[in-house]
Design brief:
With about 290 residues, the protein is α/β, with parallel strands linked by helices. The protein is about 25% helix and about 25% strand. The chain is globular and about 65 Å long. The structure holds guanosine-5'-diphosphate, magnesium ion and zinc ion.
Length: about 290
């Protein structure tokens, strides 16, 4: 499924033929990337008969605490951030945990690298070095100056990816830079808030020329995964792995218990204290014990 327009589902066949289908309630909540069995009824119109099982499902909590699907069946999450509107590592960490939980690999894309000075860029690279050290690919790019795009193409080629991140970081601009003619709508940064005005309202899947596809998603200011046990959140922090099971208490949540091997590792700089802080924030907010 290419896009869910609410009253209609836009689907695409193997041959690239696209079709608008009526959304039937019995199908349940449908999301971009869903694979469906559908039938053409007339010119560009059809009906979705059923949804196939999902290989992965990236979901988030909405303001009311309900889970909202973001994208289905993707292999790769491109977590995007930019010096404008600003980089929030805790938000990045949340995406990484949510993706890991459903079996999606993540990479981090820092866009708008035409904005910082060389000195600021070096500072930024130092600030984000942890991600590279723990095994995430970090790509620095500028969709405006078409810089770093070759690395992105190599990373996403042949895969199904979803691009997420705050509004205004340049997700839709990236789609347009990768796929001239895609026509993804982009927004000017509003002077008041420094954020892009709402332009992408529904997620949309774009096919890549070399196979695979990329899903553009609307910007969400605060991303939260669903409730999960602390141990599962900890699994989303790959660098904790060598210390798990080495704490004094078997059910240690690494939130300040005595004899905690994870805290000790942070104290001696073997893991980033900033990441531990981020983990603890998530346990407080989403942890179920
Ligand atoms: N300076 C700079 N601005 C960019 C870059 N990429 C996108 N923008 C601008 O950022 C704003 C938001 O872009 P958009 O693609 O709509 O962001 P989205 O909300 O993440 O989809 C637009 O004004 C773009 O022109 C970039 O690499 N450098
Ligand atoms: Mg957009
Ligand atoms: Zn511990």
């Amino acid at each position: 499924m290419v896009a869910n327009h609410g009253t209609a589902l836009e689907v695409e066949g193997r041959g690239g033929e696209s079709c608008l289908c009526t959304a039937r309630r019995s199908l349940g909540e449908m999301v971009c990337g869903d694979r469906v069995v559908w039938r053409m009824l007339g010119e560009g119109q059809g009906v979705v008969e059923r949804r196939l099982p999902r290989r992965t499902l990236l979901a988030r909590r909405d303001g009311r605490g309900r889970m909202k699907p973001v994208a289905a069946n993707v292999d790769l999450l491109v977590v995007t951030a930019a010096p404008v509107p600003g980089i929030d590592e805790r938000l990045i960490d949340r995406y990484l945990v949510a993706a890991g939980q459903t079996g999606i690999t993540s990479l981090i894309l820092i866009n708008k690298m035409d904005l910082p000075t060389a000195r600021e860029a070096a500072q930024l690279a130092r600030r984000l070095a942890t991600y590279g050290e723990i095994g995430y690919q970090v790509i620095y790019a500028s969709t405006r100056e078409l810089h770093g795009l070759d690395q992105i193409v190599t990373a996403i080629e042949g895969k199904y990816s979803v691009i997420t991140g705050e509004s205004g970081v340049g997700k839709s601009s990236l789609i347009n830079a990768l796929l001239p003619g895609a026509g993804a709508r982009t927004g000017e940064i509003s002077r008041a808030g420094g954020r892009g005005v709402h332009t992408t309202t529904t997620a949309r899947l774009y096919r890549l020329p070399g196979g695979g596809a990329i899903i553009d998603s609307p910007g969400i200011r605060s991303f939260g995964p669903g409730p999960m046990p602390a141990a599962e959140i900890a699994r989303g922090f790959a660098e904790f792995a060598p210390y798990i099971g080495r704490c004094r208490f078997r059910d240690c949540s690494h939130c300040g218990e005595p004899g905690c091997a994870v805290s000790a590792a942070a104290d001696r700089g073997a893991i980033s204290p900033r990441r531990l802080e981020s983990y603890r924030g998530m346990v407080e907010e989403f942890g179920t014990g």
